Amino acid sequence: MLSLLSDSLSIIILLLLAPLTSAQPGYGQVSKYCAPGTASAPKGICYLQYYISATAPTFRIAIPSDASTNTAFDTILQIVSPASLGWVGFAWGGGMTLNPLTVAWPNGNTGQVTVSSRWSTGRTLPTTYSGATYKTLSQSRNSTHWTVEVVCTGCSKWNGGSVNTQGYGQFAWALSRTAVPQPGSAGSSFSIHNNVGMISESLDSGKNARDVFTGWVNKKP
Ligand code: HEM
Ligand SMILES: *[C@@H]1O[C@H](CO)[C@@H](O)[C@H](O)[C@H]1NC(C)=O
């Protein structure tokens, strides 16, 4: 009787929790994603892929396998975003404040994606951050998605922290369904996110031999 009671109790608790957990894309699915080689980068590259949901962005991160914690090295970030999102953010140190933020948004219907380097000391509109610079490897837009892939110089180490290449790396993400007011400008303002989440993952599946990584960084569009 007692166990029957506690069984039904846990079912009730589960039923109560279900709508809460499904309403929020909290935890993503982690996998290793490899892109095939191209004419100018025949070896391709592999990423740590973080898939959240069909209505949220997917993030793919790649680093050189010889990179070590607390050093400066280039990182690759690919964002695949549903067309409905106004901006998408990725935080290299696991929270909104005091770490490099990569913020991206579609530039109207051009097929171009604006990438903005940001930093925030508080939970307000982040300011532009000159400690990280970006090179866009590819960008595209179709009726369902916009996507961008960048190389970041300055996202692996910053004043007060760094990307952990050995244990679990701490990252975070944010998304907004509101379009930015000046989409062609990396200095545009934008409004607060509709959703945020944390990522705590090993970067192992996103590690690539140095020549593979460099080949991808230098690949032609
Ligand atoms: C206009 C721009 C923004 C405003 C006004 C804003 C404001 C805020 C506020 C008020 C919170 C606390 C929310 C809560 O506790 O419910 C928060 C949390 C958060 N924000 Fe933002 N935010 C902005 C942009 C961004 C961007 C670009 C990112 C990039 C990744 C970001 C990532 C996060 C994350 C990960 C959290 C939760 C973890 C934490 O508090 O550090 N935010 N934000
Ligand atoms: C649109 O772009 C996304 C992201 O690159 C891709 O997965 C999808 O297959 C594309 N859809 C079409 C119809 O080309």
Description of the structure:
This protein is mainly beta. It has one domain: Immunoglobulin-like (Sandwich). The chain has two helices and 15 strands. It has helices at residues 2-23, 210-217, and strands spanning 29-35, 45-51, 58-64, 75-82, 87-91, 101-106, 113-119, 127-128, 133-141, 145-153, 157-158, 161-162, 168-176, 195-202, 207-208. The strands form three sheets. Strands 1, 2, 3, 4, 9, 10 and 15 form a seven-stranded mixed beta sheet that branches. Strands 8-7-6-5-13-14 form a six-stranded antiparallel beta sheet, with no helix packed on it. Strands 11-12 form a two-stranded antiparallel sheet. Strand 2 (45-51) and strand 3 (58-64) form a beta hairpin. The longest helix has 22 residues, at 2-23. 2-acetamido-2-deoxy-beta-D-glucopyranose (NAG) binds at residues 80, 142, 144-145, 147.
